[in-house]
Amino acid sequence: MSSEPRTRVLVVDDDEGLATVVRLMLDRAGLDAGVAYSGQEALDWIETHGADIVLLDMMMPDMNGFAFLRLLRENAATRDLPVIVLTALADEHSRRECAAAGANDYLTKPVSRSVLTPSVAKTSTSVLISSKCRTSSRGSQT
Description:
142 residues; alpha/beta; Rossmann fold; 5 helices; 51% helix
């Protein structure tokens, strides 16, 4: 059994059934997955448990994905938290809007494990490389 920490992914979606299926896909891929059913619940979850990556639905009641992304990017503690949008919005305009709002990747529903897992792995690898570069850069400045 590996002592290597697993990547923690937070699934944010108001559709409980879909959120559960996505969480199970992530669990089977060896990731530590949590679920939040609203934007506010997700913000609270991140503050309490932390997350390495957020999978975000854009169409939710109360706080939509754009409002959630804006709050993440305005907060110094979560500004660099990677966000993969997982949405039914399949048009190019929505894709561009999400990228402009700070999304790291964009997937459309329904999503298969063969699409989801590589996206999360790519994002996780990018985070790890960025983190190592920042650590190395700080070490060379001392």
